[in-house]
Amino acid sequence: MEKMKLVVAGDKVYGIGYRYFLMEAAINHGIERFRAVNVLNHLQEVHVFVAGEKDQLQEFCDFVSTNFPADAGVKENARHEYLDRIPKIDICHRFQRGGR
After folding, report:
1. Which domain holds residue 21?
2. What is the pTM assigned to this prediction?
3. 33 partner at 20 to 30 Å CA-CA among 3, 10, 24, 59?
């Protein structure tokens, strides 16, 4: 299993369901582990941590770099190596939906 950190930055990546959009995309690409958090730097940023098989991660990264939620204002998209723990995607999915 490989891990990766993606950073999506722009003028409008908060308040438009971007993290949920990315989580649904991760599920559709068979990603097993996922976490997304908002970080405010010089632009609004969503940091996405994913783990899965190499081909799944590549397809997911390709999707993230070419697909955006409606109303998104993306200026930058970067990939980074990541080594720390990433939770299972079902934990994030339950939290996003308000379940337990």
Report:
1. 2-97
2. 0.88
3. 10
